[in-house]
Amino acid sequence: xxxxxxxxxxxxxxxxxxxxxxxxxxxxxxxxxxxxxxxxxxxxxxxxxxxxxxxxxxxxxxxxxxxxxxxxxxxxxxxxxxxxxxxxxxxx
Length: 92
Known about the structure:
single chain; mainly beta; 1 helix
């Protein structure tokens, strides 16, 4: 036996948010399992116990990429028409 089980494609689970690998189920003790990344043990893994794919899915929600908002960019120019662009400071 390999010591791990591949999760079937019919079971919906998210890929690892760090490396994009599909998780595996690994036996950690006599009767305890973890859902973990097959590439790196330092990536998230569930607590030992019952197979908890829901916890894996909650932890591996991809973070949205920050969007650059250039609508707040201000252009200023001096008497020689040299343009300078900057973002104004916001106070809370």
